[in-house]
Amino acid sequence: MLIAVDIGNTNIVLGFLHGQETIGTYRMTSKANHTSDEYGLMLRQFLTLSGLEPDDVDDVIVSSVVPKVMHSFRSSIIKFLGIDPMIVGPGIKSGIGIRLDDPKSLGADCLADCAGAYYTYGGPVLVADFGTATTFNYVNAKGTIVSGLIAPGIRTAAAALWGETAQLPEVEITRPDSILATETKTAMQAGLYYNFLGGIERTIRQFHDEIDEDFRVIATGGLGSIFANDTDLIDVYDPELMFKGMAAIYERNAK
């Protein structure tokens, strides 16, 4: 069994993978400063919840965009599982080309997303990840990332809204029943949702306008499910896209 770990700005997401099947996924916050022992205990508990033992784990692969978490988390894997994990980063074999001005600036999460999309759905493909940040990365038919776009995620934008205003409350990020809001909470929800949805659609259309070939749009990320069913411009929503990408990268590098 392979454990794939996505260390993001808001959450750490673990996927327990048996071949092509995901047999368990778990989340913990990446905001807290946990020790290696705390991470290790949580990891052992997640294994137990899936009916697994540490000896069932063959290897671990980690994708991280939070350097300050890496030392403790990597140490927890070494201490509690006896495995030095594979890290997605510069020098790792992914089979995905990167034709950007500074290839090393591409986040490990974006590389894993693009690998998952290309190897699962083929290319060309536009990969949209809705997380703390919203990213769009274009992978051409040859499996090369040729363009990337970064924008605030909807929760990040929402936090700025209620954090920088004196009287606006914190609200749940959800699809409102109507845009015809009649009180503050629903006015904020409708404003956030439709403003963000409009931005998604305009961004995808602009890619279509500037790219002279047909492509599919694959969405992922914890917040992607909110929007994927409300627009015809997203072809597939795949919440396990990053795990699929990490599994593919692992197969290319495992001895």
From TrEMBL:
* Assembly and interaction partners: Homodimer.
Cell location: Cytoplasm
Instruction: Give the record's family classification.
Output: Belongs to the type III pantothenate kinase family.
EC number, as in UniProt: 2.7.1.33
Q: Which keywords appear in this protein's UniProt record, sorted alphabetically?
A: ATP-binding, Coenzyme A biosynthesis, Cytoplasm, Kinase, Metal-binding, Nucleotide-binding, Potassium, Transferase
Q: Quote the record's binding site residues for ATP.
A: D6, I7, G8, N9, T10, N11, I12, V13, T132
Q: Which CDD domains match?
A: ASKHA_NBD_PanK-III
* Names of the cofactor(s): K(+); NH4(+)
Q: Main site of residence?
A: cytoplasm
Q: Could you tell me the Gene Ontology terms of the biological process aspect for this record?
A: coenzyme A biosynthetic process
Give one Pfam hit by family name.
Answer: Pan_kinase
Q: Which GO terms describe its cellular component?
A: cytoplasm
Q: Does the keyword Nucleus apply?
A: no
GO molecular-function terms, A-Z: ATP binding; metal ion binding; pantothenate kinase activity
Catalyzed reactions per annotation: (R)-pantothenate + ATP = (R)-4'-phosphopantothenate + ADP + H(+)
Source organism phylogeny:
Bacteria, Bacillati, Actinomycetota, Actinomycetes, Bifidobacteriales
InterPro entries reported in the protein's UniProt record: ATPase_NBD (IPR043129), Type_III_PanK (IPR004619)
The superkingdom listed in its UniProt entry is Bacteria
**Protein's name according to its UniProt entry:** Type III pantothenate kinase
Functional pathway: Cofactor biosynthesis; coenzyme A biosynthesis; CoA from (R)-pantothenate: step 1/5
User: Which residues are noted in the entry as substrate-binding?
Assistant: G107, A108, D109, C110, T184
